[in-house]
Fold each of these.
Amino acid sequence: MDYFFQQLINGLVLGSIYGLIAIGYTMVYGIVGMINFAHGDIFMIGGFIALITFLILVSIGMTMVPVILLLVLLVAMAVTALYGWTVERIAYRPLRQSFRLAPMLSAIGMSFVLSNFAQVSQGARVKPVPPIITGGYTLHDSGNFAVQLSNVQIVVVVTTIVLLAAFTYIVSRTRFGRDMRACEQDQTMAALLGVDVDRTISMTFVIGAALAAVAGMMYLLYYGLVDFFMGFIAGIKAFTAAVLGGIGSLPGAMLGGLAIGLIETFWSAYFSVEYKDVAAFSILIIVLIFMPTGLLGRPEVEKV
Amino acid sequence: MSAAATSLLAIRGLRAAYGKIEALKGVDLDIKPGEIVALIGANGAGKSTLMMSIFGRPRARAGHILFDGRDITALPAHEVARLRIAQSPEGRRIFPRMTVAENLQMGADATPGSDAERAASLARVLKLFPRLDERMTQRGGTLSGGEQQMLAIGRALMSRPRLLLLDEPSLGLAPLITKQIFAAIRTLNREDRLTVLIVEQNANHALRLAHRGYVMVNGLITMSGPGLELLQRPEIRAAYLEGGRHG
């Protein structure tokens, strides 16, 4: 039982990271109907920006860990958001009136550009960092197995919850959130009501990238490393999470993220680490066979 | 240009096309402040295209659109909306997954206004369409056709428009609901001096409501004049009333 609880904790932490990335996929799909294949690489960029900011802050002699973390978070969100904005501006917007696959292909191209850019500018080797947040709690010790909750796990989960609360508030209560949902449901009508659709779409990419940056930073804190290729597999997992939850649904993305994180962790713990990806993708296939729109997706047909 | 100077909306020689198909072939139309103008014509004559082209969708290939003397031909749609031109478009285009309250809020957000002004427009809309008041927390997509039409008009009114564009407000509605909606338009025009352009296939209703009317055929205006006068013309009766749909 203790072992189970330990895996539950680990799975929720991993799921939080996937969920934060998945929101970016689902938001962009909702508003422009494309899969932003470069989003995983935006997450990777976020991890690198977090690492670089951290190293700079430490090298100028900062020692207070909470202040460092907060600054790293803010800088990573801001700079990565700029990447997200730029990618949309140069690679997707010019293709918006083009055929449906064009921006998708462009996204795959951007994915290569970003990962190669990171490889060339930062080197191909894995970049490790010493543990920044140390310590933790032993929740339960049965003698031969102790359930551990580390401080870094607490930081990951709490940060995710706070951001999700803020994000949910923005989407459901603010004018920007309403404009975003309006663009998602009917762009022409939104424009007729004074909504600057291009600007709203840009902001969607900015928010998605900022959340991916947080995920990148959490990944860095949790695993203690980043590399130029990490966006690929994390991106695929998060995309799977978004589809599993129901692409276009924001709570679905988070739920899907948690589900993928838990499936992967439990499979690794009880069966085999080698086949954890097979398990995650198999669950996706099974769910989609019975629920083609995902767990929380809505059916395509609407009463109008 | 003297007519254009006194018009709230003046359209001059407007041409617009979807790809190679020219939908508007040089349209002239004037709406004076405080007027209700009806635009009638058969399906596919270009009525809705004309209404949408005011917002640049499709963008004019030639000609001009002047609003209050200002050339808005090249303005993006969202900036046209901010000039207080509101549209209840073809197919109503309610946001189906937003509540009625949020749909109305979207209308209010289209133009700047104080909280008091917004509250006043909301009160006005709910007085005109009390049905919406009972549906405030319901999603737009769950409303009946008539309620959606009321919501589409209400949403347009929330921006406190100087010009209201109505595209087929009677389409698919029961006669009683149509009557209510037309009564509301008349009230708005009389009490608030709201200027209205209404596109209708239901020529009888529209021409009775309007001060003036235009008849559109194949992307061109073929006739214009006071509403009741147009209604008396035999060619209009033959084409749009007798044997056609009756209101």
Amino acid sequence: MEAYIYNLVNLIAIYSILAVTLNFIMGYAGIYSLAHAVFFGLGAYTSAFVAQNVSASILVSFPAAMLAAGVVSLALALPALRVRGEYFVAASLGLQVLSVTIYSEWKGFTGGIGGVLAIPPVNILGIDVFRPAAFAILSVTVLVLVLLIVNALVHSSFGRNLRAIRDSESAAASFGKNVPVIKTISVVISAALAALAGALYASYLSFINVESFTLDTSVLVMAMVIIGGTGTVAGPIVGAAILLILPSVISYFDFLPQTEIGSLQQIIYGLGMTLLMIFRPGGIVGRRSGT
Amino acid sequence: MLAIQLAITGLQTGALYALTAVGFSLIFGSTRIFHFAHGAAFVIAAYFFYAAFGAGWGVIPAIGVSAFGAVAFGLLLDRLVYVPIQRHEGSFFTVFVASFGVGIAVQNVIGMIFGRGYVTVNTTLSRSVEVIPEVYVSPLAWIAIACAAVFLGGLGFFLKRTHTGMALRALADNPELVRTFGLNPRAIQAAAFAIGSVIVVPAAIITSATTGLSPAIGHHVMLISLAATIVGGIGSIPGTMLAGVMLGLAESLALLVVDTQWTEAVTFAILFAFIIIRPSGLLGRATAH
């Protein structure tokens, strides 16, 4: 039971990092990305590669993951500068599909479909962290750090610029805001922080493969943000916790087909998203009137 | 010879892409509703046909069941989800998320009923015949191309010559003016959903006999529909058709240089190039903003 709870805490912390970072660009900059799992995956693969070949120290593998995701996110920032709304959804969907192909094919880096095995545990000041309880401290700490960074950004002038761009790009530009630079920075920050979730995930499970970084994951993270409340501080974490506890709740009800837990979970959050949009577009935590 | 073979296969794929994408393009162009569940309409049409045909209902009744499923889905979604949302706001994001949620639910319900693996409808029509030396074409390829010609031609005629068609185009241009002329925008919107959903039926059925179906095919359908709509130019039905055929041909001809798993990457590269260089698309006039 204890192990189960620690495991759940770790997963909630990791997915909360993804949801918080996606909310950063979705809720504050109006960039609706269906490609967040790409950076989750890139962070995981990069930190696994570095941990196996260079050093498993948190001071080496985690920054490497952030750097890789930050650089690759420029591929997502490029269309975000040109277009918004439906165009960007299409571009990010395409990037997600393309990345899954690359992750499945680039065997030297990702191990192909088989994935990467025996990833060494993350090393902090000479101590290997791998027990679920110890790891929970690490993952929650990283989550808190990410929250602090995002919160500081949102409440700075940078955050005000982002909201101005979300509400009216041309108005922000006419006030002399450098819209392309602000948007690019926000995408890069979001991707780099999302890579931390990937690095945690890889070292926690010590095994990763492409299954964890598909469109389904991007969709799940987006559902967490939306159900919790887009553009709120607590929303993404509430959403992540609800959606990750959902499978256990389903297994509690005997009359539901237990072999279909994954499908039931997706049906529930799919319909949940639809109903929220009809009756409460702001999400669970969000304001009643929506955005 | 390989190039000719691939070009014919590409034309078949392109015909199906055009038929799939044009429904989304019609709905999005005329109502501005980002109907992400269009992929779900395709999945429903395809699996309804698969189930009815598999139960021994014969081809014509199975096509009827399939068309009924797609149209009922489109109309119900419009009535129960989009209309209530439009009543209070209807920003792009709200509509997209609601539609997206329905798509996820449909994919998983279908997956629970029919299984998540690939299924195929068995027919002798998918057996390839050697038409000229070393070029093999199945009768289904000709059926796909003929269907595309008939349905897309019919749609073009409908939009140009009938009252409903003209009203649809008017709705795309100016919804307020439509109301001023005493037409009911909501009824026209319902018509857009009925037509946009029914036109995926031929593509869904032919796909079920050629490449096969899986519940997750809806995402692929959406990627193609979005790509064709954007590459063709948002609001331009002929542009979408052209782009659909072009994407099919490009995916197929790309096999001359790359392996099959990269075909979606080709679509993405074309889409990406258009978004960066020419967001207004092939035949579009409006810009992205």
